[in-house]
Fold this sequence. Notes:
Number of strands: 0
Structural class: mainly alpha
Shape: globular
Amino acid sequence: xxxxxxxxxxxxRRFSIDPxxxxxxxLARSRHVHPDFHGLATPAEQQASLEASAALNEAYLTLKDWxxxxxxxxxxxxxxxxxxxxxxxxxxxxxxxxxxERIEEAGENSSELHAxxxxxxxxxxxxxxxxxxxxxxxESHTTAPDSILTQVRHTxxxxxxxxxxxxxxxxx
Length: 172
């Protein structure tokens, strides 16, 4: 069985992890597997080093980013993928449509665009906080309730939508 990203970095399998620990464990482990340190090894050992380094890099990139970490944890828990669960709360969708209209109306008004950006970033922070709570709830169960897994997916879908609107801001 393939080790998880958490196992590769020697970290606990949970959403709330110390970013400094992710960095520290990655650097410590990368020194042992990086291909540059295996230049005199056999071709098979060099290939193994390359594969181990690539797997370690993927683990690091996934776990250092809270969004990717949440999505990965959801996958490990057997939760719905973004392709299988696309639903978003209708009120949330209406609010995002209203924000897009505000962006169009703002034109080049930088103070209004900054206010919208701040609002969107606050919404993203609220989603991250919600994920923290949902994953804490999941950790307290021996089996993951489908309803919580679905809420996690809906929250991740909301973050994607928020980030999409943020990317569409003319000045941000």
